[in-house]
Amino acid sequence: MRIESMVKPRSVAIIGASRDPEKVGHIILQNYLNAGYSGKLYPVNKEADSILGIKAYPDISKIKEKVDLAVIAIPAKLVPGVMEECGKAGVKSVIVVSGGFAEVGETELQNKLASIAIKYGMPTLGPNCLGVMDPRSRVDTLFLPTYKLSRPQIGGVSFMAQSGAVGSTVLDMISGEGFGLSKFFSYGNAAHVDEVDILRYLAEDNDTKVIVMYLEGIKRGKEFLKAARETTNKKPVIVLKAGRTSAGMAAAHSHTAALAGDYQVHEAAFRQSGMTVANDLSELLNYAKIFETEPAPRGGNVAIITNGGGMGVLTTDAIASSKRLKLASFSDKTKASLRKTMPSLVNIRNPLDLAGDADGKRYSDAMDAIKDDENIDMLIVITLFQTPGADSTVASSIIRIKESFGKPLIALCAGASYTQMHKIMMESAGVPVYDSPSAAAASLEATLKYSMFKKQMPDEL
Amino acid sequence: MRIESMVKPRSVAIIGASRDPEKVGHIILQNYLNAGYSGKLYPVNKEADSILGIKAYPDISKIKEKVDLAVIAIPAKLVPGVMEECGKAGVKSVIVVSGGFAEVGETELQNKLASIAIKYGMPTLGPNCLGVMDPRSRVDTLFLPTYKLSRPQIGGVSFMAQSGAVGSTVLDMISGEGFGLSKFFSYGNAAHVDEVDILRYLAEDNDTKVIVMYLEGIKRGKEFLKAARETTNKKPVIVLKAGRTSAGMAAAHSHTAALAGDYQVHEAAFRQSGMTVANDLSELLNYAKIFETEPAPRGGNVAIITNGGGMGVLTTDAIASSKRLKLASFSDKTKASLRKTMPSLVNIRNPLDLAGDADGKRYSDAMDAIKDDENIDMLIVITLFQTPGADSTVASSIIRIKESFGKPLIALCAGASYTQMHKIMMESAGVPVYDSPSAAAASLEATLKYSMFKKQMPDEL
User: Fold this and answer.
1) Residues of A in contact with B388 (CB under 8 A)
2) B window 155-214, beta carbon within 8 A of A
3) Which end of chain A is more exposed for a tag (fewer CB within 10 A), N or C?
4) Per CATH, which fold does A149-293 belong to?
């Protein structure tokens, strides 16, 4: 299905735009303006001549130019009539933000909406959804004000979610990270456009490096797995599915009227299709950022550099507990090179503890020494920014090495404002940063599994 | 051992205090001043007459008044001589910040330090440690500047760590939370005062509601378990032990020269002593905050209130995946009461989805309705602050109910600044706030396990 016009529309009609700042239609229009959308905007409202300084139209037929996208935010029972008008006016695509359909038992009304979409060949997202956000095209149909939901920066992670609430929470979480967003789709009840359509679109989208999805139910299971299999040959797909337990399934059913199905079957099928399965929202984000920036690892031998011994031990535990990872042994060449540049108190072993007075220079020397070691497939650089030596020279040295490292390199640090500042600095420069050894290990392992899948290597673990 | 004088000294000598702002002894003195310590401060420095405007002394014997605590930050080989002087001068307790002892092979030097401590009956913390912090007495021997390591507010969580680096990272992490600190001990090589002494002290300390510890090795295993058993009868003890794997053990050995021992034996013994075992730094904090404020649960029946269906499903999954928790069934009385106050679109079931327009009033009505339900042992209140209805009235209503709830009540929310603001608001008012369903479920389960331990109920899971 051609959903490009939803994501990169040259003109948008907002049906239900309102002068009342509390109304959804007002917030959507305001957010388009805030985002700096450069296409044509047409507020549609029976009573107003203009809204937020923009000429308004009483109905869609009165707009003389072509409309690429109509965003509909009016009471449910009025939606089918308005969609008919959109179809007749030649609107290219529709997003129905309004709720009040299958999720509250109004299946009939939802079917009517779907049949109008099919009749006019007019891709329709929703109903009961937040719609689309694309920071590049500056499309933002979300009816949530930016002070409540901060918008992420531009990046390579695309995210799709059935649930508007989970979708908005994840978007807001991403906005607090140093990595960025390509496209966001909240598709709600999926009356017409569904996860298969969105997945196929994102598979072809060059700005999307990683696809992340939150699912409650899947309507077309077979097509979905086929699309997933084709997509994972090109780019990583990470999935979190709600309804992992029978209690969760029952709750999911009540929420979007989707049948959750048996989770173990789903999970096995996801994995066979090369998808990375997350078990929690935090895992979704952790995996997204490593897949966005890191190359495929050749193996699971991990080197650890740290400025705090204890954190090195905890990270060693996390690596050794992981099924596919283990501590690398430094080559003789690496050891000799480290002996030359490290102060004598530094024990030349993995994890390499640079000590609490380590500055950017010592980190640089250590990373340079291990950079070309064939025994090392991945590197975790721990920086406790609380220690006396650590400052922004350490973050800079990690960013510098990263540019030519050629293997997965991630940073690990935890703490309050001084640490967070350096986290954002590193992530904005393309270094994924984790705040716990277990999250770091799980994320490295996820890239290794995906790399094995792509090389068609058996993974019986 | 009497370590009270370390934590609440009326006078502190800082040996190695320096006019050079880069030196450890300078930063320690500066931090005492910044913290607003009201006792007597005596910088000790051979060459300076005064440091940071405070009269300095060439050595400890020249201080005429009684010194409760000497903080020593001078090169390792000079420490035994200075400790002798402290002993002769009648100093009550000592903290040796300096490194360069057993952790770098200087076992002899460390033994000398211990024997002087014993000879003078002078409790000595360290060497190779950060020392002590107590935001009530405003003692702060940490040599890390506050811009790098934010200091936590006053609270009921006491934390002890062998590793200074892990200790400072956790302190910094706590400072970003809404809960606070009672005492912090970084005890380094534990040449004299060790985990048993600190545990026994914290067990008796009325300001300490929860004890949290990060361990690498344990010197006196039997005494430690005995002390733990006695402590957990009074208050919860949470432990994270590094060296869970053989690789981690090897790394731990190199770090503090402590023998990590077999982890599975340790873990079983910890659990039998009623300690709560954490597997990661984030778990340490998650458990600490629920134990600080929440009463012991009677059982594992959990009610969930949410303003986002998807988050309710994910949380249901987390509860149902947990071994000891399950979804509660609302009593008929609760259901009737909810039917009266909830709008018709709200489905009366657990999880209770209040919908995206729910405000503080709706949350209040829902919590009031379920408050006295005997079928409910614990409550998770999810608020997606991204949704249109959610604002500070929701946080206020949770805080209000909390005061008389009488059962564990925790909040769950995730997101950027608007959400973080409400998180801090709730946590400062004594409501533990989690950012993921799995963390919320694990923390509730930890309180249930501890409550079963205290009631001597069998727990074979």
Assistant:
1) 24, 143-144
2) 161-169, 171-173, 175-176, 214
3) C
4) Rossmann fold (3.40.50)
CB < 8 Å to B320, chain A = 245-248
Test mutation, A184, A311, A314, chain B, max B CBs within 10 A: A314
Count of Cβ atoms closer than 10 Å to residue A62 Cβ: 11
User: Cβ separation of A386 and B310 shorter than 8 Å?
Assistant: no
Residue from B150, B169, B170 to probe the interface with A (highest A Cβ count within 10 Å): B169
Chain A nearest-CA distance from B69, in A, is 24
The interface residues of chain B toward chain A in range 65-124, judged by CB-CB distance below 8 A, are 104
Listed in sequence order, the DSSP H helices in B133-260 are: 164-175, 195-204, 221-232, 246-256
Fold assignment, B295-454:
Rossmann fold (3.40.50)
Query: The tokens of A171 are what?
Result: 């978007």
Residue B44's H or E segment, with its range, is strand B40-44
ipTM: 0.91
Which helix (H) or strand (E) segment holds residue A200: the answer is: helix A195-204
Q: For residue A346, give the 3-state DSSP assignment.
A: coil
pTM: 0.93
Following CA atoms A387, A390, A391, A393 in sequence, which dihedral angle do they give, to the nearest 10 degrees? 180
Q: Residue type at A240?
A: L
pLDDT of B260 reads 47
Q: Do A417 and B327 touch (CB under 8 A)?
A: no
**CA dist., res. B397 & res. B389, Å (int):** 13
Convert A222-243 into a string of H (helix), E (strand) and C (coil): HHHHHHHHHHHCCCCEEEEECC
B308/B435 Cα distance (integer angstroms): 14
Q: What dotted CATH number matches A1-129?
A: 3.40.50.720
Interface check for A142 against chain B (CB to CB < 8 A): the answer is: no
Number of Cβ within 10 Å of residue A397's Cβ equals 22
pLDDT digits (tens, 9 = 90+) for A271-329: 999 999 999 999 999 999 999 999 999 999 999 999 998 899 999 999 999 999 999 99
The pLDDT tens digits along chain B (461 residues) read 789 999 999 999 999 999 998 888 999 999 899 888 999 999 999 999 999 999 999 999 999 999 999 999 999 999 999 999 999 999 999 999 999 999 889 999 999 999 999 999 999 999 999 999 999 999 999 988 888 888 999 999 999 998 888 999 999 999 988 889 999 999 999 999 999 999 999 999 999 999 999 998 888 999 999 999 999 999 999 999 998 888 888 887 765 544 445 777 888 899 999 999 999 999 999 999 999 999 999 999 999 999 998 999 999 999 999 999 999 999 999 999 999 999 998 999 999 999 988 999 999 999 999 999 999 999 999 999 998 889 999 999 999 999 999 999 999 999 999 999 999 999 999 999 999 999 999 999 999 999 999 988 776 55
Instruction: Find where tokens 């709008």 sit.
Output: B343
Q: Where are the domains of chain B?
A: 1-129, 149-293, 295-454
| Nearest CB to A165; choose among B169, B311, B435 | B311
Q: How far is A249 from chain B (nearest CA, A)?
A: 8
Who's near A434: CB < 8 A, 6+ residues apart? A286, A410, A411, A412, A440, A443
Q: Do A1-129 and A295-454 come out as alike in CATH topology?
A: yes
Q: Please name the member of A175, A307, A345 whose beta carbon is closest to the beta carbon of B416.
A: A175
CB < 8 Å to B326, chain A: 247
Q: Which residues, listed in sequence order, are joined to residue B50 by a DSSP beta bridge? A: B55
| Cα B177 to chain centroid, rounded | 11
* A217/A266 Cα distance (integer angstroms): 10
Task: Give the type of residue at B357.
Answer: D
